[in-house]
Amino acid sequence: MDKKKLKIILAAPRGFCAGVDRAVQIVELAIKKYGSPVYVRHEIVHNKFVVDGLRDMGAIFVDELSEIPDDGRPVIFSAHGVPKSVPDEAKSRDIFYIDATCPLVSKVHKEAIRYHEKENKHIILIGHEGHPEVIGTMGQLPKGAVSLVETIDDVNELDIDDDAEIAYCTQTTLSVDDTIDIINHIKSKFKNISEPYKEDICYATTNRQAAVKHIAPLVDMMMVLGAPNSSNSNRLKEVAKIHGAEKSILVQRAKDIDWSVLSDVEVLGITAGASAPEILIDEVIHEARNQFDIELEEIKITDENISFNVPRILRD
């Protein structure tokens, strides 16, 4: 019996960004240099495949430093960043730690600190409540110094004088379009507003969303490879739906796919969140070939050549 024809359009850029690649390298190099176990506070990145692979190499993932014994082993902080209280606790216990915070998240931390400490401004942070990156950014400043908003309605409900000295920052993995709308509303509401010299949403988030916007009108369904707790992956799913894909789904692995949902799909778009490695795309394409007669096309909207150095201690 002949297989059903399926055209797959791969979005590019997709998958690992420079910050995720650096964080994963940090764990791998730490295990290589110091042996196992190496402790990691929280998931190093939001991807089960990556976390499980590092666990197999000798990483032990914990939620809090209190779970780590005083055994002299290294501790790595995740790519999402941590509140100031976490390295302070590590220092108080004489724990050797390596910070794998993405440099673009660290940029947001430095902005918030500068606005508050040097310019005496109140910070409005645009982001998702409870996300590790948001917790880390808010944790750079004293309680009450930052107001978190997720929507325009949240901005309207802020108990801040319209003529107060305000600065805004954003989570790095938000919807570009939604964030622009919120920023414009903040600017219209507050008279004295300072903004980042360069937008906080990272290049990888922007590029992956732009690629999805480009191919969404060309496909019947968009499939995003990523974890359910990955902010940037969930935004890709939403962006695809908004910009023309009739259906948009988020899956972690090829084994999780119910291929029957593609029964009426003629053109499938595939992308991957910034914490999903390319091997997961390869898995999906391999399995798709078992199910369908595949025509494969890649549409690239830009090249990415950004990389970040790992800490010097791991380069020695």
What does this molecule look like?
- By secondary structure, the protein is an alpha/beta fold.
- It folds into three domains: 110 residues, 4-hydroxy-3-methylbut-2-enyl diphosphate reductase, catalytic domain (Cobalt-precorrin-4 Transmethylase, domain 1, 3-Layer(aba) Sandwich), CATH 3.40.1010; 85 residues, 3-Layer(aba) Sandwich (Rossmann fold); 97 residues, 4-hydroxy-3-methylbut-2-enyl diphosphate reductase, catalytic domain (Cobalt-precorrin-4 Transmethylase, domain 1, 3-Layer(aba) Sandwich), CATH 3.40.1010.
- 37% of the residues lie in helices and 20% in strands.
- It has ten helices and 13 strands.
- The strands form three sheets. Strands 11-10-12-1-13 form a five-stranded parallel beta sheet, with helices on both faces. A four-stranded parallel beta sheet has the order 3-2-4-5.
- Helix 2 links the parallel strand 2 and strand 3.
- Helix 4 packs parallel to helix 5 and helix 8 packs parallel to helix 9.
- The longest helix is centred in the first third of the chain and has 17 residues.
- The termini are far apart.
- The mean pLDDT is 96.
